[in-house]
Specification:
The chain is an alpha/beta fold and about 130 residues long. The chain has a single domain, classed as Rossmann fold, CATH 3.40.50. It has a five-stranded parallel sheet with strand order 2-1-3-4-5, sandwiched between helices. Helix 3 links the parallel strand 3 and strand 4. The longest helix has 15 residues. Pfam families: Response_reg (PF00072). This is Response regulator. Keywords: Phosphoprotein.
Length: about 130
């Protein structure tokens, strides 16, 4: 599996990456703008990401905007649709509702992210057996 973890918190990036490092090639970005660049590069090389984890609140470009742009790129290029999990520290369900209904994310994680919960989502979406 090829995965992209996008979060402005280095600890969250490292924890998620460590959780899947045995079964995935993991790349990292600190904001949505960096993520879009990596997704474009992956599509150009026909090496699509199977999993993308996006923090909702980040500097430069937040996760919801990045999510929409990633889905637009996938549609425009006929590329493989990545499984996208949104990550939030917010206790408000409004962010998740928007991400799921308008942004087409596949699932979400709340911070602090627990490795077991992350693995359960991966299994649920067929990315981990």
């Amino acid at each position: 599996m090829k995965a992209l973890i996008v979060d402005d918190c280095q600890l969250t990036r490292e924890m998620l990456g460590f959780t899947i490092s045995a079964t995935a090639e993991v790349e990292y970005a600190e904001n949505g703008e960096e993520a879009i660049g990596l997704v474009r590069q992956a599509i150009a090389q026909d090496a699509h990401f199977e999993l993308i984890c996006l923090d909702i609140t980040m500097p430069v470009m937040g996760g919801l905007e990045a999510l929409r742009k990633i889905r637009d790129l996938e549609s425009a290029t006929g590329g493989t649709r990545a499984t996208i999990f949104m990550i939030t520290a917010s206790s408000s369900p409004d962010d998740m509702i928007e991400a799921i209904s308008e942004g087409e994310c596949d699932d979400y994680l709340t911070k602090p992210v627990i490795g077991k919960t992350f693995k359960e989502l991966l299994t649920k979406h067929g990315l981990l057996s």
